[in-house]
User: Fold these one by one.
Assistant:
Number 1:
Amino acid sequence: MTSEIVVDPAPHPAWLPDGALAAAGRRRVAVATPEPAEPQRGGVAPPGSDSSPQVVATLRAELERATAAHGGAVVDPDGSPDLLLALVHEVSGPGARLPARGPDTSGGDGFRIVRDGGRVTVTAETPTALLHGWFHVVRHGETAFTGPDVDERHAPAFALRVLDHWDNVDVHPVMGQVERGYSGGSIFYADGRVRDDLSRVTTYARLLAATGVDRVCINNVNVHAREARLLTDDLPEVARVAAAMRPYGVRTHLAVSFAAPMTLGGLPTSDPLDDDVRAWWRAAADRVWATIPDFGGFVVKADSEGQPGPFAYGRDHADGANLLAEAVAPHDGVVHWRAFVYDHTQDWRDRTTDRARAAYDHFAPLDGRFADNVVVQVKHGPIDFQTREAVSPVLAGMPATRLALELQVTQEYTGQQRHACYLAPWWSENLGFRPWGAGEDGAAVRDVVAGRGPSAPAAVADAGGGGIAAVSNVGDDRFWTGHPLAQANLYAFGRLAWDPTLEPAAILDEWVGLTFAGPDGGLEPRVREALHAVLDDSWRTYESYTAPLGVGFMVRPGHHYGPDVDGYEYTPWGTYHFADRDGIGVDRTRATGTGFTGQYPEPWRDVYEDLATCPDELLLFFHHVPYTHVLRSGVTVVQHVYDTHFAGVERVREAVAAWESLADLVPGALPADVDARVRERLAEQLRSAVEWRDQLNTYFFRKSGIPDAHGRTIF
Ligand code: GCW
């Protein structure tokens, strides 16, 4: 008989294996509610009803599950539990009121945790906040109980913490089931409809609740004809998805098409100032909230890459966004309106048009005109989720607007979940970027999107800003994310959405401790070490063997995987590097280039403008320089390309070796299926890194004629 690997059809438990619940599960635990909040009808509240009783039921089920697995017990609140989770009308004790309330948030999301002589009490004003408190305890394992006495308050930095799915209902002929998805099909849709079995969606909501994400937009921002109908004919199906996530306090959003009044409503126009169009959107929103009372809101990509928008009617994006805002306002809904607007039919011969300028040029003049329930959602960089690019100046240019930072967890440009690339360090850099330097009290991007940017008006501040959003990397793959180690990116996004000041290495440590917890909650220390070795610097490693010095792209057009230096050079997409025999880079200066540097406030407008002060890692993003330009490291641009590409491959080899050093732990501390998948991905990463190295080095050698100073092999 051949030995077959039996594949467990259940999804991988990610960061919530039963072992991760061991510390709490061994103890006496209790839930207290101020008044009976038991759900009606056999434990399940009717779909669309208030989520609170359901989340209380979830919490009880979590405790039952943990104690059943680990020998503890669920006891009465007055039975001197080791852990008491108590819902209270108002969190009392030292400190101010819990923050993170806004008109469109689900209430106080924070909780208080007190540890006193080994007894832990968590109090919160809402069941969802209490659930977050429970997962906080889980995350801390034994130390949640054995650590020194504490009295702490925890609340999310951002009121809105969203994952956007680019999932299509129908398989798109080019983009597939999930646009830029590298983890199989959609967890929401199969066979052209919402899945019958949505249990996996509930498991997903559980994983998200354990990180801090509390909203999910369930369809692609490129809204095709089939997907548009989620807003109308398919509402009962959307309600089923919402019901699947509600038990974990996760709210549902939909991406909608700006042309819906025409394509779905049969109107002759979608003009945002047309009365019939306004009435159509109001009626559409009324129907949505009548079906799903805790629905979150709409996400819109308009006038971008072929999606319809207000420009067709000579209107601007404030007109467009406010049209939808008016429709959802009676329901406390929110509109996430994306700032990703640029000309994708550019003439490559035209050196004056600069895609990097587009979002600011379109949106900054509209500051102050957006309704209070509009969030303008801004990609972190001015181009498109590159491995390295400058921080978008839009984030500093719209003080009177609720802005959200948009990140990409799915690794479109960062190795497509075939390469291990832990993105938290990159996101942290963006969140911590200070657009005004030490000025404006040193405010950072994370302050701006929390509504605490300089001169934020009360409406922006009170709403807690626009928060954070990211494109999910999840699919119906057994490991959720294709590459098992890409789960760390999803986890890290959720944790940074809750607390953007967390250290990436500390987040990774949490993720490892939970994900690789043994049955009793313990972790083999070598697993921790190896995962830090593989992941801590993996984003910089990826950067080193791909596009250099902030120039971006150089990927294969269309699918965006693997090297193709000139792939986009003569295309309409506006993503050029301008390499010739003498030099490379995009001149975005005010003096001689596109003037993009002028979109930044001081100090960056001058720091980036001047070759002498522009940071090397963004050199080619802002300047066109000769290959012989000497970097701060003392080497020339072309030598830097050679050095980093050779070194990058060696670092991938080291990652492979670090993983292989765990071979004796398989199976056991390291499950065989995880090991097999990671090995397969690492082999592809190494192959691909070699390809990147050789193509990039050869390209620049052939262009410049300058040999490698160390005489290494270039083709
Ligand atoms: O990065 C680009 C992707 C598109 C995507 C677009 C966007 C959903 O290549 O696939 O479309 O960004 O963010 O809208």
Number 2:
Amino acid sequence: MLRTFDPLDHATIVGWLRETDPVSLERLWTRADAVRAAHVGGEVHLRGLVEISNHCIRHCLYCGIRACSDGLTRYRLTAEETLACARTARDLGYGTVVLQSGEDPGLTGEFITDVIRSIKSETGLAVTLSLGERTDEELRAWKAAGADRFLLRFETSDPELYRRIHPALPGTLSDRVAQLRRMREMGYEIGSGVMVGIPGQTWDILARDIELFRDLDIDMIGIGPFLPSPRTPLGGAVAEKMRAAADQQVPNSELATLKAVALTRLVCPEANLPSTTALATIDPANGRELGLVRGANIVMPNVTPPEYRVLYEIYPGKACIHETAEACQGCLEGRIHSIGRVVGKGPGGRLTRRARPVAEAR
Ligand code: SAM
């Protein structure tokens, strides 16, 4: 039976995620690329990524910079170092700078506010923050200082799996979906995402993740393979214990990731979708390009100074880790041109937004 695209309901998404026939998958790739071209066009927008701190107070089971990661040298960029990275991003022609870190209270609300103000006044770049779970007071102050967007992956739509892989801090509740909703109300463009193949993630859960992107009308969606870090519980024996039954567990493969990217493009046609560094890490030769021809339209080149970049080790063997920002830029532009696409100009924010459902638009 020919697999269909309409309606893209739960059963259909699960069916496509489980699909292995190359001829059928070719239809999925073609469809995702056509929807990408129709809704966000042929431009690939580049966002300069600055990894401003690898300090973290969380104990996420998957992440190499988790609080108790042994033997990791910690760093935190100064305001001047961060501004210098933003200048590099501007000089390389990028429209956005993304400030990312572990969940680091050492990056105080005031510090980030000042950094945003300096970047905005000196470079005029769009500013995206990816600093984890922060207070509403901080989020409002950063928006007022000029921040445009905030990336916060919900990691999984399954509450039980979330609780296991992303333990809440003592005495607190971790609710990333609630923070995403509040940030939308504050005026941020909101970004989210998941890892593909995290132990315990079933096809059913991954389909619900994709449906949650649609329900939340997420503006930017980052999807990459889970890459085990030996510094973490999920890089060791715990992973085996957490895995779902063999016919249910999503593999952390390039193919599973590309299917999730393509289906996300179909259910969220207007969203900005990065071809992630994790995809480039799992397939250094073709991962970036395959993401871009199967639904993605964004790349986030790293502009962190190389001496710090090696310390932001969320998983080992990260792509482009030793290259300078300039070398990274040349390589990426070449890859983008090789697939017949062009580098986007300007901030590259979300272009259009369908009418939001009444319940959400309150
Ligand atoms: N601390 C912020 C947060 O948690 O939102 C931002 C930094 S965090 C390191 C960025 C993302 O890296 C996470 O949302 C997670 O999805 C991804 N990540 C962490 N460990 C990973 C791993 N082992 N493999 C693939 N992606 C990983």
Number 3:
Amino acid sequence: MYLSVYYKRFTFVLISAVLLLLLTACQKNAFPIDNEQLSEEERLVIRFSHVVGENTPKGLAARKFAELINERSNGYVEVQVFPNGFLYKDGEEMNALLNGDIQMIAPATSKVTSLVPEWSVIDLPFAFSTYEEVHDYIAGPIGQRLISKLDDKGLHTLGIWDNGFKQMSNRDFPIHYPTDLKQLNMRIMPSEILEKQFSVLGAVPKKIDFNILFHHLENGDVDGQENTLSNITSKNLHTLQKYLTISNHGYLGYVLLMNDEFWKELPVNIQLLITDTLLEVNQWEWSIAHRLNSEKLTELEDCECIEIYHLTEEERQIWEEAFEPVFEYYKNRFGAEYIELLP
Ligand code: LMR
């Protein structure tokens, strides 16, 4: 008799536990079926704005992220991607994110320096030689400090996307040595360190939005520019330039950012969906970025449409010495600890 009551209770507890587990599992993925029919008001919309083309590492990864999120939430969460600065231009997207007009952006690390200038450590010339070095630095204590400075500004960091290492191009003559840059008008992204990088060599840095750079090169407002090969070719910038130096002198990557208030208001299951999906997308983005930049080099070599020069190891040393004042400047401005932990 006692045994039977005990058995019934045990069975009841067991069934309840199984039901609870099932319920929790269902809730985790509790997206109503066929949400494609829902109106925009009923769906959860995430507007993701960026300034590059769709055929770039960032453009492709943003699209993949949107597709996976849509598929995995049965259409309940809709990531709307706005490429090419259609919605907000270079200088506008950060404010739009902070104001909650859009929910996601992936600006170049150089561009977050307007908010947290310490991030310009990533722009220091020849600070990194490989993508892994950048990833390790950002995963380390200094990178985490940089990320917490973004938290303080109302931003939630979801990851780092690579683009690649920057190369230099111009229309006038081959660039082999730092002295070759004297007097050249060079387009830069908005970053104090990039400004310094060119001005210490006697060049004239000019901050110009990525989307209008083609016209500025065409009009001759600037003679040259620095960027990754996937960015250069995506906007056909090479067609307006005669000389390209493969210098790999600086890393260009992105901080994937969400408006923190929006993030905090998301249900936990959606937060999980986003972070889990990004674990996969971030890895995919890295491999696409690396592949795309090397493919673009081959394409440029094959087209014979621009004269390409690869810096030698000895020349690289000369450049590194010429850039020492830039490191000194950063150290005086933001403290030595950011530089001491560079690879
Ligand atoms: C640039 O302005 O050159 C880049 O930041 C564009 C980008 O987002 O890759």
